[in-house]
Amino acid sequence: MNCATLIVSLADVGVLTGLRPYLDAAQRMWADAATRKMYVTGGIGSTGNEGFGEPYDLPNISAYSETCAVLMFMTLNHRLFLATGDSKYVDLLERGMYNNALSGVIGIPTSIACGSGFIAPRKTPRAGCVRTILKTDELDERDEQKRTKTGTVLGGCSARQ
Prior knowledge:
Blueprint: H1 2-17, H2 20-36, H3 67-84, H4 88-101, E1 105-106, E2 108-112, H5 127-133, H6 137-150
Antiparallel strand pairs: 1-2
């Protein structure tokens, strides 16, 4: 998830500042992940360090590929689609949502399983996963304060156009 968060940040900085090299770097990293480091389910991350391993090294049993990482990759796909209008980003957003993210919801929307959904048993739900998929009142209030102060929220749902 950390690597996907970094790529989202690169894309945000590129779009919000107009610094094209940042957006270009995010697109190159996306292309590497999407073509050489992504599971058929849309899951990403084959290592336990919340990052990517070697190209095409996608083990089933030790797959990191947890729901949180997929949610962040979905966010990246959404941001890149908004920046470019290219439908390939929406295709992967949908793949991750239907095959991985939705399977992480446990009965009620405030409970998220962070496991990979492969052969390995699911991990215990963590608060970070819930915050990735759902905005709480506290987070919405903080985002509003940031928006008011700076006119933008880099990691949130809104940005100055």
